[in-house]
Amino acid sequence: MALLEVKNLRVEFPTRRGTLLAINDISFSIDQGEVLGVVGESGAGKSLTGAAIIGLLEPPGRIAGGEIWLEGQRIDGLDYKAMSSIRGARIGAIFQDPLTSLNPLYTIGRQLTETIIVHSGMSKKAALARTIELLAEVGIPAPDQRIDSYPHEFSGGMRQRVVIALALCANPGLIIADEPTTALDVSIQAQIIALLKHLCRNHGTAVMLITHDMGVIAETADRVAVMYAGRIAEIGPVREVIQHAQHPYTMGLMDSIPIIGHDVERLRQINGAMPRLNEIPNGCAFSPRCPRAMDRCFVDRPELMPTEQSGQAACWLFGEGNSDGGGDG
Amino acid sequence: MAISERKGKPALGAIARALDSDIFHSFIHSPVTVISAVVTLVFFIGAAFAPWLAPFDSFDPGALDLMDAFTPPAWAEGGVPQFFLGTDDQGRDILSTIMYGSRVSLTVGFVAVSFSIVLGVGSGLLAGYLGGWVETIVMRLADVQLTIPAILVALMIDGVARIMVPFHLRDQMAIYVLILAIGISDWPRYARVTRGSVMVEKNKEYVSAARVIGVHPLFIMLRHILPNVMGPVLVLGTIGLALAIITEATLSFLGIGVPPTTPSLGTLIRVGNNFLFSGEWWITLFPSAALVILVLAVNLLGDWLRDALNPKLR
Amino acid sequence: MGVAMADALLRIEGLAKHFDVSKGWLTRMIENQPRRILKAVDGIDFEIRKGETFSLVGESGCGKSTVAKLVVGLHRPSGGRIIFDGADTAEATSRKQSAALRRRWQMIFQDPYASLNPRWRVLNIIAEPIRMFKLAKDAQEIEDRVAALLTQVGMSPADGEKFPHEFSGGQRQRISIARALSSEPEFLICDEPTSALDVSVQSQILNLMKDLQQQLGLTYLFISHNLAVVYHVSDHIGVMYLGRLCEIAPAMELFANPRHPYTRLLLDTIPDLNMSGRARQPVQGEVPNPINPPNGCAFHPRCPFANDRCRDEIPVPQVKDSGMIACHAVEEGRL
């Protein structure tokens, strides 16, 4: 049984100008200990997916349909109290800005011990010992001295390590990491990514890694889902999606990333921009920008279907009766 | 189409945009706000067109007849329909006097608030943008003045100005002195708010972009930064208007506001105060009610404006 | 550096910028603290030739953005000289001289959401330099020029009537570029122009900038922390760390043959999209606080090749081919 299963999730925002569908019928699963990357550009809906799963959708946003199953238990639609007990204990969260993830008024030691006590009922002494252990694990030097420091006394990279410790302290089965390295320097990013990978392998924690940075996905993820305009465009093993992309959007995306050693005069660009939520075209949302669009693409919306590789893509190029296939990646 | 071809359309477009905007929407859907706006509008119209709308001219001493004094309101015993809300101790129709009085109150209120805003926003702009000793001086001045209640400041300025004005000009100058006093008493709030906003805007890149091409600091302050900091100032302004009206009423009530020949709501309340316990309750009650309703309506409008302009609540 | 290039459009000599970040006088007296100076830029030299793209890379606190602001005049240098087209910019003191100089360069900023005044129409935003430098005779000519600029950056003339919030990040950056071009400059300073944009939009903007460079013969100073982007756009690259330059080299050579240990560290942190399975060894440690930089070579705490000399002596830049390197280990032949 998969650790997390999302089925036909829909998230909408009622506004006075009509209801905007921000996530439009997506389905995926994450297995125990697996790292799933969710990649997409701004407005694709990837952060909202994480927020919906962990129950932190900001009103007026709400889940309008679909099911979310965690370890065989349905968790969408649970009330605030039930969701609070799941958060932290079974699903951990790491957000982008380490400054705002930690309460500036409390020492990090206190924040960690409190969380541990709330979720595991350990004694204060035991929780303190566990805190020091965790801080050492995430690479904070001299942890027994630093538990009395406040968040602002740490650098960005160190703070993010503390946030990771906080996310792991109750031993959740799943961690949702929303752009965990975007606000950090390049050299620190590499450290944090390595740490996250290492810890999750050791604890057997699954990770849903949400980011716009393909490089981070390449280093960390087992599988990756590419989102576009509220739907999943392609999903599959990371090596396949990156090197042999099947969906024209993924192909365009990979081509537009400059790569060292790869000399081109001009980068391949995808003309136009992702449509706004209230301007999503009929049929496939990518059709106006797609170099391989067929007539059908403007009318029928494609669901995820098997490609020539082992993943899936929501593209009529892989529909039945298409001997064309996906072309080269 | 070329930019010039659309010149005729922007005006209409602006109105259409305004009607469709989120702000107008929140306005229409809040009954309290709509009522407040209507009430304020009624006051404005009544005050502006008093000479044509009021049944009597309260400021014309010749038209008064002492025999009409102390007439109760029309629905009470002894009242007459032409003096709908009754008359005061000199035979002035209360309704007309309220309308003329509101005129004074609203004029003084508006001009005083405008003066405060110009003074406060101006100094806030300079303090926030230039920093250094300019900021220190302006802000410390504001701090010092904020320790003194605004009404005392107004009293003080009013008192000092009166002494300086020659006796025979006193009545004429009273309104200007009043406006000066109320205006000066309230500038620190605007200065503080503006300075804070300016400090935020100053670091934004559009200001840097203007500095790169060598735009003069004054131009930057007025054309670039000022339009972006006016939001909170407007909110404070509506509430400041209410405050100014009350301050004027208070000063007039104390007898050191407008001269007795051009009564405002405050003067009326003072006059009526003398007769409150002798049974002629309407002389104080109606002007007081008018004052309360006007100030309440303006305050509620200010509340709505603050909520509407707050991006976090949208 | 070294032989002054005849066709160097910009030459920076010993540029330095110090910020006084001391606490107030009273606090210092009471707590007996010394003055604290932040040396954002601590003596750098480089040159940019006409028509080329020179990039400055580095992580936060290295001073690259401060360099950009010093070049355009947003900050006053604490030391050193900025020589633009042969003339020292500090000598342009009168308004007229200053304006003549400012016309020749422009800046593009990082944040497309803060770099356009939200209350101004796009037409006026783009026309501001035209009006400032009096480059058009009447309103009609201004309109025509703005329309031409909007078309040049891939937008439509009708967009001039709209406000910034009606556009996406990529479109706003195009508007910024149009505005930068409106005074017909020769030199564009670009401070992380695509860092806030999505990857697919980034490629559009980078292509646009390359096209414009070819059409108009522009020279670029490109500031970025993204090495892959820098690889794609640059002719020469300077690597900065804590206010000093570590290495300058032609782009291809820097990536093929990085000499300075910090450059090697940076290149090592770039994720491998080719998925060659290369094992990365992320170097431990973080960028130190610029207020309190380490003695000697600023990089020595994190450098695997540091020796005693590195801890005491600041490395002197050595000219090498068409670049420079400031490293004891390289100088001593240990690397």
Low-confidence stretches of chain A: 323-329
Number of strands of chain A: 12
Biggest β-sheet strands, sense, barrel of chain A: 8 strands, mixed
| Series of H and E elements of chain B | HHHHHHHHHHHH
The percent of residues in helical segments of chain A reads 25-40%
How many DSSP helices of chain A? 11
How many β-strand runs of chain B? 0
Largest sheet of chain B: none
Structural class of chain B: mainly alpha
Q: Based on CA inertia axes, which overall geometry of chain B fits?
A: globular
Run of helices and strands of chain A: EEEHEEHEHHHHHEHEHEEHHEE
In CATH terms, what is the architecture of the largest domain in chain A? 3-Layer(aba) Sandwich
What does this structure look like?
The complex is a heterotrimer of chains A (329), B (314) and C (335). With 329 residues, chain A is of the alpha/beta class. Chain A has helices at residues 46-54, 80-86, 98-101, 108-120, 124-137, 143-146, 156-168, 186-203, 214-220, 238-243, 248-256; strands at 4-15, 18-30, 35-39, 62-70, 73-74, 91-94, 174-178, 206-211, 223-228, 231-237, 305-306, 312-313. Chain A is 32% helix and 22% strand. Chain A has an eight-stranded mixed sheet with strand order 6-7-8-3-9-10-12-11, sandwiched between helices. A four-stranded antiparallel sheet of chain A has the order 2-1-4-5, with helices on one face. Residues 323-329 of chain A have low confidence and may be disordered. Chain B has helices at residues 9-20, 22-28, 31-48, 50-53, 94-130, 132-146, 150-164, 170-202, 205-212, 217-253, 265-273, 282-309. Chain B has 314 residues and is mainly alpha-helical. With 335 residues, chain C is of the alpha/beta class. Chain C has a single domain (8-104, 186-331), classed as Rossmann fold (3-Layer(aba) Sandwich), CATH 3.40.50.300. Chain C has twelve helices and twelve strands. In chain C, the strands form two sheets. An eight-stranded mixed sheet of chain C has the order 6-7-8-3-9-10-12-11, with helices on both faces. A four-stranded antiparallel sheet of chain C has the order 2-1-4-5, with helices on one face. Chain C is globular. Chain C starts with 7 loop residues before the first strand and ends with a helix. Chains in contact: A-C, B-C. The A-C interface holds A 41-42, 155, 157-158, 185-191, 194, 212-216, 218-219, 239, 242-243, 252-254, 256-261, 264-271, 273-274 and C 59-60, 168-171, 198-204, 206-207, 210, 225-229, 231-232, 255, 265-275, 280, 282-284, 286-287.
